[in-house]
Design brief:
With 423 residues, the chain is of the alpha/beta class. It is 28% helix and 19% strand. The two termini are 40 Å apart. The structure holds alpha-D-glucopyranuronic acid.
Length: 423
């Protein structure tokens, strides 16, 4: 490990020591990882092995239900419609190469409403474009310099670098996140891309679920109620409801993707909604792709204490008791099978446990193989910038920090080309 990397990890460690008055020092030492045995995705809870594809379907439901009950919370069904109104459209964006439009999606339930804005960039060169769908962290306007894209009115995380105070979006943040959304490159490769500000679906703070979709649906709460990660995943499904009706998009070729906490939401959306034909986890870490039992970097205790609103109350039972979890995150990845899945890590993102993310994909491979697919064709962790993309599960680790970069996007598009044809 280089000196600068060590320094970074130390700073990260210091920053994360005090949570609610309790000390937390992340473990970054492989030799200190506790011994663990991963629950087998191919054995039912009663010990019966899975012997056929039909049995896997039943086991899949069993695993899904355990994740709902113990971790993400049970999502309510949705019978209401999604009312779509295009509030802005430019058919000749990017020198005529793309159509940019923003669609206001209104979800109505009883007499309540929730609005979320879906910003779409669609290539003009193609009918039925495949699409990448993912949330952004600070508002659609931060992903573009286009002055017509709306400024979110929802609660936003404060950010000193972006001069966001009082949890309100402001004009000066227009375009501050364009690096994470390389629209030009995506359009040039024939893909459409859609994004929504995640806080419009559920503001990311602990308010006992009084706002966002929780307030819309007003579910009674108990120990397995849905929490924020599930709420964000649910919002992606509502965007999917709309996308199925947009004639410029191919609803059978929609990849759901997300970075970090939004990667957790993307994987859960992929697990719960099989309309997503491909799933991409970018640095999703603890509560996403990384194996919880490794307790490397962020742990179940730390995530539950720092972000008490992300997971269902039941999940706290496993604080410092990961060995009692009836599942681990490799089984979450296995729920994506047989659909293509991409897991990506970054070298300086030890907090998210890159090795744990990789091992999770390796373990999920057992289910893919059971279904006659390759899964991830790599037993050893590849070197940085050496993506393994020739299987049904892809993996890469990129040099650099916790982020989603053009390099990451390029690999996702290379992977998607394999299944959906290069343009
Ligand atoms: C924190 C959190 C992570 C999360 C990340 C992010 O670091 O501990 O679990 O993934 O924020 O969303 O950027």
């Amino acid at each position: 490990m280089t000196k600068s990397k060590l320094l970074l990890l130390t700073i990260l460690g210091l920053v994360t020591t005090a949570v609610f008055g309790q000390e937390f020092t992340p473990n970054y030492d492989e030799s200190k990882i506790p011994d663990y045995t991963l629950p087998n995705a191919l054995v039912f809870e009663d010990g019966t092995p899975v012997n056929s594809v039909e049995q896997w379907d039943a086991r899949r439901k069993e695993i899904l239900h355990l994740f709902e009950k113990e971790m993400y919370g049970i999502m309510p069904g949705w019978e209401g419609g999604v009312h779509a109104e295009t509030v802005y459209q430019n058919d000749t964006a990017m020198a005529g190469q793309a159509t940019v439009k923003e669609v206001k999606l209104t979800l109505k339930y009883q007499r309540r409403e929730l609005e979320m804005y879906l910003l779409l960039h669609i290539p003009n060169s193609r009918k039925n474009a495949p699409l990448f769908l993912g949330y952004n962290f600070y508002g659609n306007h931060t992903t573009t310099h286009d002055p017509k894209v709306h400024l979110t009115r929802s609660w936003v995380n404060n950010n000193i670098d972006f001069n966001i105070t009082e949890n309100k979006a402001n004009e000066s943040t227009r375009g501050v996140r364009i690096k994470r959304w390389p629209y030009q490159e995506i359009i040039a490769r024939g893909y459409a891309v859609g994004t929504i500000y995640y806080g419009e679906v559920d503001p990311d703070f602990d308010d006992n679920f009084r706002n966002g979709v929780h307030a819309l649906l007003k579910q009674p709460s108990d120990s397995s109620s849905w929490a924020s990660v599930a709420a964000w995943a649910w919002g992606l499904s509502r965007a999917m409801d709309y996308l199925e009706t947009d004639e410029k998009i191919d609803p059978d070729r929609i990849a759901v993707l997300g970075h970090s906490r939004l990667g957790k939401a993307a994987v859960w959306a992929g697990a719960t909604d099989e309309r997503f034909a491909m799933v991409i986890s970018n640095n999703s870490g603890c509560g996403g792709a990384a194996i919880s039992r490794r307790q490397y970097g962020e742990t179940v205790w730390r995530i539950n204490n720092r972000f008490p609103h992300w997971f269902t109350p039941n999940f706290s039972k496993y604080n410092e008791k990961e060995h009692l979890l009836p599942f681990d995150q490799h089984q979450l990845l296995a729920l994506i099978a047989p659909r293509p899945l991409y897991v990506a890590s970054a070298t300086d993102d030890q907090w998210a446990d890159p090795k744990g993310e990789f091992l999770s994909a390796v373990e999920a491979t057992k289910v893919y193989r059971f279904l006659g697919l390759t899964g991830l064709p790599a037993a050893e962790m590849p070197k940085p910038e050496s993506p393994v993309i020739h299987g049904t599960i892809a993996y890469h680790i990129r040099t650099g920090k916790h982020d989603i970069t053009l390099y990451d996007w390029q690999q996702y598009m290379n992977f998607a080309d394999r299944f959906w044809g290069a343009w």
